[in-house]
Description:
The structure holds 3 protein chains of 3 kinds. By secondary structure, chain A is an alpha+beta fold. Helix content of chain A is 24%, strand content 30%. In chain A, the strands form 5 sheets. In chain A, strands 1, 2, 3, 4, 5 and 6 form a 6-stranded mixed sheet that branches. Chain A has a 4-stranded antiparallel sheet with strand order 12-11-13-14, sandwiched between helices. In chain A, strands 7-10 form a two-stranded antiparallel sheet. The model of chain A is unreliable at 1-5 (pLDDT under 50). Chain B is α+β, with helices and mostly antiparallel strands. Chain C is of the alpha+beta class. Chain C is built from 5 helices and 14 strands. In chain C, the strands form 4 sheets. In chain C, strands 1, 2, 3, 4, 5 and 6 form a 6-stranded mixed sheet that branches. A 4-stranded antiparallel sheet of chain C has the order 12-11-13-14, sandwiched between helices. Chain C has a two-stranded antiparallel sheet with strand order 7-10. The chains are: A alpha+beta, B alpha+beta, C alpha+beta. The interface between A and B is large, with 57 and 46 residues. Chain B: One of its GO terms (biological process) is rRNA processing. Chain B: Residues 45-173 form the Exoribonuclease phosphorolytic domain.
Amino acid sequence: MSSSTTSILPSLSPPQPPQTQHLEHLSQEEQDKLKASVFQRLHPKLYLEKYLEEEVRPDGRELGGWRGVFLNVGSISTAEGSALVRMGDTTVVCGVKAEIAEPELDREGEGFLVPNLDLPAMCSPKFKPGPPSEEAQVLSERLNQALLTSNVLPLSSLCIESGKAVWVLYMDATCINYDGNAFDATLLAMVAALRNTTLPQAKHDSETHQTLCSRSKPRVPLQLANSVPIATSFGIFDSKYVLADPTAFEEPLLDASISVVLGDGGEIISLEQLGSVLVEDVQDGNGEWVKRDVLKECIEAARARRDVLVKEVLNGK
Amino acid sequence: MAQNVFDRRRTNGPEESTPFIYEEDISNPVRPQETCRKGRKPADIRPIFLQPGLINQAAGSAYIEMDRTKIACAIYGPRQSKNVAFHEKGRLNVEVKFAPYSCLTRRAPMRDAEDRSVAMALHQALLASVRLESFPKATIDIFITVIETDGMEGCVAAGSIAASTALAHAGIEVLGLVMSCSAAAMGSEVWLDPTDEESRLSNGTLVLSCMPALTTVTSVWQTGRMAPNQALSCMVASQNRCDDIHTIVAQALLLDNSKSNQENL
Amino acid sequence: MASTTSLSKAEKSYIQAGLLANPPTRGDGRSAQDFRTISLQTSVAPLANGSARVSIGRDPHDGSGGTEVLAATKLEVESVDLGSGSGGVNGGRVMCSVTCSPAAYPHLSSAALDDLQYDLTTILNSTLTHPSLHPKNLTILPGKKSWLLNLDLVVLVDSGNVFDALFLAARAALWDTKVPRTRSVEYKARKAGGGGEGGEKGDMEVDEEVVSGFDTRQIRHATDFELPDYWDEGEELDGRDRWPVCVTLNLVPPAHFLDATLEEEAAIPLRLLLMFSFDSDEPHIQGMRTMGNGELTVPQLGELLKEGEKYARQIWQSLNAKLKEEELGRIKERNKF
């Protein structure tokens, strides 16, 4: 029996500070980093709040700041056109494959454009292997709507022989690394891939009912419209802060989100708002929080962003 | 014509569509036999570009480019095995996905038998290298996305190099890095790292996966018609080349590690 | 491959110790290179173009136990036209698939069973459908129609060594396969008014056109084929001598043994599959695969290749003798009439 008294009653002494003996091998800086990352995991909302109170976000950006965009086209030789986009850490690869099909009976002179986004299990721990998740389905549908509404590629330009043969462009985007805001990155990748796509010259032989392409004749780029759709997304946190281009850490903490797809000259192609976008960040004379609708601000910010993207990123390619 | 199965979870195209065919291919279908290798010596492999740590969401990741083979690999784990009975050694779960634009004819986004056969080959190659007893009841998920492929053998070889790099990047205990090299038997010669065209013209192909650090072989996969001594010479040539690949991979990992150490400082 | 038998550590080490002993001892008293009794029958499925049934280690008294595999080939006509939608290739195609009867693996879920089927199919497909083994008589009409050879294998019971059984059954079924003889037929359409081969005279006042060999305006409407003799089984599949046999070397370094039972398979982590073909003077490897968690060295592989060749040659010779015997038996039966 040990000589020290080991009481079976619960200890009434004040709680001890967390034992740090097991962290002694780390430097003070590393210990702080570990504590911060534990705090981030256990209390993500508080963690983000503390940053936003200082008018900065966890990755160092301003509230309305954007992540750097990197674009690379034409690296996949098996595809008719391809593009790789990195928006911060979010990486999306888009490849365009062309096939030939018979047109629909009521749209004899129109081809097909089939965009799809795949969020495989590899891009984030929150996606499981298997059929497309809800998020992937929603994003695919939104991309489809955005591309069709903007008419960036008029479907009549994909016609080879009216009523007999048309081009089908399968645009498959794969997200390789998901760090939030896959929609913006994917739309940019798809648009860039379309600009990079070239199709062989095809001729339909009505006798043999076959469509043959020529290897010797040069390939033809797509007849795209001048106005390319660019998407910009925002999130509202705690009904107080408007965050542009949210990351994967911020996304689940948002109360509401706004996604704007703009064409040339600021025309709105699509606008999606989920949740209330009334922000309370100003107090009036009585100390009451004033509610402000930020939708217009977001659209303005999106316009500015689009100009920057089109000039620097797309026109370089 | 490719029948497109209607999938309510994706945007669908027309019911049937065919890949386009070139006029010239129909009129001149016969291609001349390759007697001399174009552009490379028989024992040369294509240059490797390897980048660990491409995917920050994953525990470990790597991206490899070998000319026209581009593969991204992400490793999650060891994490809890759900829905599986108790197992005292860890499990390795390899899943391979070919992007629809990765092959000359578009592949359907559904998983098919080819995905699984590549996954099986990679599983076999990596199984012996991982210290499974260090994580009982847990699974390591290895996800491979093939962005562009130039032949199945090249795919398996590049995939195992990427997966091994990613395992090391994730800090999972391994007995050694697994390197793979593919070889094709062309007549009496052995051509290393054949392209799709070259392996189709050859009599047979062989993919050898080994751990150069331990000079042991973890997996051999041979198809086609070869004499036994030819198969042996393919294996010896591949193994020698794996030593060189090992140096490249080790360097890439060291570089990445020193870079991340610098960032932390 | 899913390890379907679970063994305790004690059982595993018992089996391994027995195999490493000198001389090696096994549960059923066999030596390291002994096979269980193999029984083979061909032409077991009358509706198939070729079939075979193989069982390894079946109890002779009550017919139970043992690994049993059934293989059957069926020929289908495929269109080779590029725009027609079928996958036909000029020169014919060979497709192989393995299914596992759920009765053979009662404790596997259907998903796991699917996976197992996929895996077995992959191994057989990659070996047997390789262009070097492609039979040359699968064309019916060059550029238009060809045969699709479907080889289907069913694992009815699995008591270990399923790969050797699968390849034996495949080779036997392909040996037994008869390709129906075809003859191509052409229909030439006459110009307006007439039709069909007979060329009936319709309400035409114009003289019938004389068919000239230089008249390129004639359009050949249909090119078809027919079976000249309905009752003829057909000719042998070309290159039936080339199909390989498989020998599975179960590795307990430095030793190895053949024809493992389920328990032995579960106790041994690593095995080497070798597919050999002895159709010409020189032996050829048609396939090689390592399976399981283990390591080898290249010199060891070289040794195993040599040993495997010897075993495969014995299997090959016995199989050929049996196949010839079966064939003679069938010819005698037919000639009884």
